[in-house]
Every structure is written in C-alpha cells, then in structure tokens.
Amino acid sequence: MKLKNIIMLTFFLNVFFVNLSYSQKYNRIDSIILKYPKNFASTEDLAKRIDKDFKSEYQKARAIFSWIALNIQYDYKAYLNPQPSKRFTYRTEYERNKQIQDLQDDIVQKAFTNKKAVCEGFSLLYAELANSVGLNVEVIHGDSKTMLNDIGRKNTQTNHAWNMVEIDGKWRLVDATWGQGYFDFSKKIAVKEFKPYYFDTDPKYFFAKHYPDSGTYLNDKIDKDAFLNGPLIYNNTIGGDHEILEPNSGLIEVKTGEKITFRIKNISKTDDICYLNTKGQRFEIENPKEKRGFLEFQVTNTNNLSKFITFFLNGNSIASFKIVPKSI
Q1: Most buried residue, 24, 143, 241, 319, by CB count within 10 Å?
Q2: pLDDT surpassing 70 at residue 93
Q3: Which residues pair with 164 in a beta bridge?
Q4: Cα Rg, the chain, nearest whole Å
Q5: β-pairing, 316-325 with 251-254?
C-alpha cells in the first residue's frame, strides 16, 4: 500500500474512532446542552431554557446534570483549604431556617457565577435548577469511597453530597460532582472529563462508593459493613458494567501461597487484564476462564503481592482489594 493511502486510512480510522467515542460519550440531550452559552444571566434563565428545550422529566433531569457537569469545575483549592464553618445565632426556628436558606442561596449563586464549587455547591445547584423546572429533588449528605485506605475503614464520615431526583414516579441517583471529572492525585491536577454514568446510576454501583448519613435509600437500609469493607471500584467499573461477583468483600484474608479466585462481569479472555506487584511490575492473571458473561481467574498470594491489589483492564483501573495475611 502506498504511503499516501496509508496516511489517509490512518486519518480516516482516527476520525472514525474519535467520532464513535464522542457519540458514545454524549447523547442527544448532551449535544443540545453543549450548544448552550456558557453563561446565563441567572439560574432562572437557565431553567427556563431547559424547560423550553426538553419535554419529559427524564430529559430535564439529565439536561441539568449535563449542564452542571460540563460547565462547573470542582474547586480543589477550596477543598484542600476549607474555610471555617459559618456560625449564626437565632431565636426561632423560622430565623434558623431563614439563615440556612440564605447560606445555601449564596453557595448556589457562587457556584453558578464562578463556575467552581465543591460537592455542596454542585448538589445545591442541581436542586435549585431541578426545582425550577418542576422536579422533586433532594440533597443527600454522606460518605464517599475513593481511596485505597477506604477499604476496611472502621467508620463512615460525612465528606460528600449528591442528589436524588424523582423522574416519572421513580427516584434516581445523581452525582454531578463526579460527573464533571476527577482529581489525579499522582499528578496533583484536576481532570475535567464528563462522566455520564453518574446520572441515574445503578444503585449497586452508586452505594459501593456512596453511603448516606441516613443509612437508608427509599426507606431500605443500606449495608454499612458492605460499603466499608467492599472493594474499591473505579469510574471504568461503572462505565463498563464490570460488576465484581467474587470475592464478595474487599478484604481478602489469605495465606502465603494460597490462590485467590476472582469473577468480574463483562470481561473476556482476549481483554488485557493484569495487576502490579510491590515493585510496580506487571503480572498476568492465572487460569482465566470465560463463564456466562464474566471472567473467572486467579491470583497467587506471594511475597511480591502488595498490601493492595488493583486490577487494570486495557490500562484502566477497575477494582482494588486489600490483602490481609491469614494466620496459620
């Protein structure tokens, strides 16, 4: 094949796969939102535009999520250097509620105007816009699971906020903060990357990474131990529907030389799946077998195995577990 033809074919394939990736990342609602101006005079003006352009409750709820995730950036400076909590006094319940409302209105306005916020600003802004288009919505506070050391943590804490929105009589889970991107701790930079699966997230994934202060979801109790002791899952786990079927805990008690069996949904033998040892060297999984939509494989617990074992699928982390030495 001539060099010119090779170059043209390479260009075509690059364009094809970029467009394919784009179409998978953004749906029709997102494409409309991407054409919106970045600045509106007020939240009311934005809500009116969304209410005009979209008809169904689902479309409006998704449009609000997409606008926030695409336009508001997480304020890591504020997160790393938090301001002291504001204190206020009151004589009546009305005065208390009024001051809380004023404080929340201020957070919403700053997020909307400055295009920066922490999770409280994201969730309050989502609630403000959802209410404005006639949706029932709640702001939920609770714990989030994002770090290796969160596996096997003893207690929950309040460190995050998200939303529940009612769509056609069913409550859906929304995290606009995580929908906008993430923080790369190794490079210490904020990465703006739209994550659409944090809208209407499957509860089995959502509550692997979120635990509400109430300990309940739609009046059903959430297993606190399952949250604290479960494996750490990543964005690619949710995006690829890679459910962890086995082990059922993120804490793996195992002897040296013993094999650990894993089962992960929607992975095939042809996929590139590996883990790293204590020196950062790549190690292959053992005995991979495809079974009814999942891959079963094993890892031998050796001295080279780290305290935490993280699996990578085609170069992206999907799940981490904590290895606990088993006494003889």
Answers
A1: 319
A2: yes
A3: 138, 173
A4: 23
A5: parallel
The CB density around residue 72, as the number of other CB atoms within 10 Å, is 23
CATH architecture assignment, domain 26-230: Roll (3.10)
Superfamily of domain 244-325: Immunoglobulins (2.60.40.10)
Q: Measured between alpha carbons, how far is 165 from 85 in angstroms, rounded to an integer?
A: 28
Which tokens sit at 145?
Answer: 């699971």
Query: Per-domain residue ranges for the chain?
Result: 26-230, 244-325
**Angstrom distance (rounded) from CA 59 to CA 50:** 9
SS (H, E, C) the chain: CCHHHHHHHHHHHHHHHHHHHHHHHCCHHHHHHHCCCCCCCCHHHHHHHHHHHCCCHHHHHHHHHHHHHHHCEECHHHHHCCCCCCCCCCCCHHHHHHHHHHHHHHHHHHHHHHCEECHHHHHHHHHHHHHHCCCCEEEEEEEECCCHHHCCCCCCCCCEEEEEEEECCEEEEECHHHHCEEEECCCCEEEECCCHHHECCCHHHHHHHEEECCCEECCEECCHHHHHHCCEECHHHHHCCCCEEECCCCEEEECCCCEEEEEEECCCCCCCEEEECCCCCEEECEEEEEECCEEEEEEECCCCCCCEEEEEECCEEEEEEEEEECCC
Distance (Å, whole) CA 233 – CA 316: 11
Q: Nearest 5°: phi and psi at 279?
A: -95, 5
Tokens 């769509």 correspond to 167
165-193 per-position pLDDT tens digit: 999 999 999 999 999 998 777 777 778 89
Burial profile 214-252: b = 16 or more Cβ within 10 angstroms, e = fewer: eeebeeeebeeeebbbbbbbbbbbbbbebbbeebebbeb
